[in-house]
Amino acid sequence: MKLRQKGPSITAIRETMDRMSLIVGRSNNPELDREFQTLKLFVDTFGFNFIKKVDASERPDYLRSLATNSKTIVDAGVFEGTPNLYKAFPELPFVLIDPARGIEETMISRPNNYTFVKKGIGDAKGKLTLNVNRGKTSLLNYKGVFGFDALERYEVEIDRLDTILEDVGAKGPFGIKMDIQGFELKAIHGMTGIMPQVDFIICEANIRDTAEGSYQFSDLVAELLKHDFVFFNILNNFKPNARFYDVVFLPRGSEKFRILD
């Protein structure tokens, strides 16, 4: 079998281009210089235009680095599953939480060891209407350019996250990931009982004013600050018109704020 030969790095190619630039400059050949400048422009922009920029949320090694002493991982807002999160913590038990019908049966990816809870998470026990359009679900009514037509609407159970974890006997410290379409702030209100046991929080945080009764990013930061959790990182690449970002919050005293890995 013929093995594919590994080529030089982009950095090495750029260094070669710098050396060639000196040679072309000494040639005093305008036509050669024009052709070389075209080639140099391609090399300089290759990484931006042609290489896929991987979100940190797609890297299990990075997700694992966020944990200090997690004993249980919570995945709230499951849909088809969160494979990179499951790969990051293959040895830990998971609590998967999603109120939509048929999620547990149709998950494409699932952790090795998990408990599934068919509920939504919020600030109090109760019932709310879930809006569903294929893979998109929300307990809120999206508005304006962010709106979507619900193909289904049905009532689902809502409970506090701290209550759910107590009910299933989950053991902290907890690593928590939330992707619950604008309901994150209410979910934070509903986990105050476990905040001292939370190791890290990853959540899809609103940037735009997307839905009635939702929040904006500053509201989430301010609420978490009350519980001594502070912003740590953004897991996505830059988006000029971002509707949301996946963001990480860590306890204020985390050692990770004092090191560069």
Describe this structure as you would to a colleague.
With 261 residues, the chain is α/β, with parallel strands linked by helices. It has two domains: 10-50; 56-258, Rossmann fold. It has helices at 10-27, 30-50, 60-65, 83-88, 103-106, 161-167, 184-189, 217-226; strands spanning 72-76, 94-97, 114-117, 120-121, 126-133, 136-138, 152-159, 174-178, 198-206, 229-234, 244-251. The strands form two sheets. A seven-stranded mixed β-sheet has the order 3-2-1-8-9-11-10, covered by helices on one side. The radius of gyration is 23 Å and the shape is elongated.
> What is the CA-based Rg, rounded?
23 Å
Kindly identify the CATH topology of the largest domain: Rossmann fold
- Taken together, the total number of domains comes to 2
What is the C-level CATH assignment of the largest domain?
Answer: Alpha Beta
Return the average pLDDT rounded to an integer: 88
Number of helical regions = 8
Q: Tell me the β content.
A: 15-25%
Shape: elongated
CATH architecture of the largest domain: 3-Layer(aba) Sandwich
